[in-house]
Amino acid sequence: MKKQFNRMRQLANQTVGRAEKTEVLSEDLLQVEKRLDLVKQVSHSTHKKLNACLQGQQGTDMEKRSKKLPLTILAQCMEEGAAVLGEDSLLGKMLKLCGETEEKLAQELIQFEYQIERDVVEPLYVLAEVDIPNIQKQRKHLAKLVLDMDSARTRYQQSSKSSSHPSTLQPGAKSESLREEMEETANRMEICRDQLSADMYNFMAKEIDYANYFQTRRGWRSRRLASPWRNT
């Protein structure tokens, strides 16, 4: 009968331990977490599509970009044709003029794409593939620390209840050790939670900066469309 009573008490203690589960994130931070996932998804997709729109070879200097640009190849073809036909002929003069114009357009496009890559494409990559994943990694680490803390607390509570039994010998040392372990894990968890909260709220505060990436692209696009060479 006594063994059954002790068994029931142990089961009750375990049930209580499971019920005392610490929430990883507050309601506000759960909303921020959902926002993180959405921004990462949109940024990744936009970065991929924007990369596909660039005609020049990415990650190279201006000269190498220009050589493989279709406009540059067309300009060279026209200038070579003008040389074959003779620059004194009407068709030769027209080809030479068009070739020079296409070359200027090519240089303008290269400059435009270089600015887009520097001010939009690269920041979007950092946002989607570095900044947000770092926050998500930190969130997983916090979840692990929460589990560690809950486990340490459960062990301490069970030890405290067991130490109150008259048959327990020298319960103080073990209980004190478990209490220190619980406090240490709780301290690590709170430090991680504070840092994660700061990073997540900082992310939300910087959303206007992320919007400016696209504003930058729009500004460069408007200037390119307004260029006099567009009407040449």
TrEMBL record:
Residues 14-232 form the BAR domain. The keyword Kinase does not apply. One of its GO terms (cellular component) is presynaptic active zone. Residues 154-186 are annotated as: Disordered. The keyword Disulfide bond does not apply. GO terms for molecular function: GTPase activator activity. It comes from the Eukaryota. GO terms for biological process: modification of dendritic spine; negative regulation of Rac protein signal transduction; neurotransmitter receptor transport, endosome to postsynaptic membrane; regulation of actin cytoskeleton organization; regulation of dendritic spine morphogenesis. Keywords: GTPase activation. SMART domains: BAR (SM00721). Coiled coil: none annotated. Residues 176-186 have a biased composition (Basic and acidic residues). This is Rho GTPase activating protein 44. It comes from Oreochromis niloticus (Nile tilapia). The gene is ARHGAP44.
